[in-house]
Amino acid sequence: LNDAEKNPTLVPHRGFNLISGTHDPDDVDQIYNLEIRDSDVFVVTYPKSGTIWMQQILLLLEAKGDVSAINHLNNHSNGDLIPWIELNGNRQAFITAPSPRLRVTHLQHQFLPPALSQKKGKVIYVARNPKDVLVSYFHFHKLANMLETPKDFDDFFEKFMRGDVFGCSWFEHIKTWYSHKDDMNMLFITYEEMIQDLHSAVEKISSFLGKELTDEQLASVVKHSTFNNMRKIPQASYEKVPDDLLSHQNGRFMRKGIIGDWRNHFTQAQNERFDQVFLREMEDFPLTFTWDM
Ligand code: A3P
């Protein structure tokens, strides 16, 4: 048994790890057969890359910057601003939902409907530098009750490097999705560019989606998507997610929201090993990452 198979919170399935109780493998397999509309938008991320942040931006773009559009969302359910396609029970609702159907997913490319690769619908891939992803994911494992609590940072570091986590290997995730960039209507955007210039990022997303917002409306989307303002909105900050899902006493979902926190966690030896693996895995990858502010 490898580590993922020994971990009771993970369900290895077709080369990917799902979360036990959260995802049903048979149901996940049915996602492939969903019919896609031109107006569908899928946000795709490896965990901890800014998924909820992108949810907030899309929701606000849809509402032309009107933050009260979030008010009707139920604080006491799992609080998702935009539904996960892979979450138990969400697939059926997708079939009959009115357009535009906005969805998020952490799944690998192989699970999504092939129509996306025939330029039907749109995909926004949000990438984040993997050292910060690892750190954010470590803290999230302490918070999230559906995931195994790591013994310590070193233990989690090893699991992440082996891909024995939900989402599997960060390297495989980004490389596979990126290799389909040209056969999809895909916007590839990074967490770091969103941090460095949120206004430009929001404009880019808006124009990718073909939205026409006034300057004032765009400014409102930006204003309500900053880290500090999202922290004040319970639906966006996950503060109201029930305790059986998140152990709030162990930390905050909206934790730091910065570039380079890995420097406070990685030992020098871990950093050297990470760099070696990164160089090997990402040798042919055309983009560079921002590791520090
Ligand atoms: P940290 O743990 O590094 O703070 P996801 O939504 O994919 O799970 O990603 C969560 C990460 O995105 C967390 O990172 C969280 O703080 C960060 N995040 C969420 N909203 C953000 C925002 N408006 N600005 C910057 N970072 C944000």
Automatic annotation (TrEMBL):
Sulfotransferase domain ranges (all copies): 38-285
Subcellular location: Cytoplasm
EC number, UniProt record: 2.8.2.-
Enzyme class: transferase
Cytoplasm as UniProt keyword: yes
Gene Ontology terms: cellular component: cytoplasm
GO biological process: catecholamine metabolic process; xenobiotic metabolic process
Primary location class: cytoplasm
Keywords: Catecholamine metabolism, Cytoplasm, Transferase
Single GO MF annotation: sulfotransferase activity
Family: Belongs to the sulfotransferase 1 family.
Protein name according to UniProt: Sulfotransferase
